[in-house]
Design a protein that fits this description.
Layout lengths: L24 H4 L11 H4 L22 H5 L4 E9 L5 E10 L2 H13 L7 E3 L2 E3 L1 E10 L7
Antiparallel strand pairs: 1-2, 1-5, 3-4
Protein name: TonB C-terminal domain-containing protein
Pfam families: TonB_C
InterPro entries: TonB-dependent_transducer, TonB_C
Length: 146
Amino acid sequence: MTHKKPTKEKKTKHSSQAKQNSHSQSQNNEGKEGQSNGSAKSAAPNPGDHSAGAQPINNVQPEYPLSAQEQSREGNVTAVCDILANGKPAHCKILKVRGGHDFAESAMDFLENSPVRYQPAVVNGQAVIEHNHVLHIDFVLTDGMD
């Protein structure tokens, strides 16, 4: 027996996790060489430096594919993107998809065309591009009780 609810009651939960060892860290640290005055203290990273954030900062959610809603399908997508200094994801590629190709299409549209923004990486107090940031997007049907 299939129990269908109106589309409005189905919500998308979006979660993402940053890859802890970003391949971009060596590129983001340009200009740090030559800043040491010989003390061990100056070689330590600036405590304000950080990699790009894992969660969207503006609560934008991807569209849940209609066909997946109708079939009560859930899924997830793993993508890799550059996070620009303004927090926008760019140059995204899908690494893995579970649940159906429609989830991959929705995730790519979300990452490339929506107003979603992530906390950008910061080096020496300046927002910088972080390359190869891994994002996980989960598509989960809920009963509207959140």
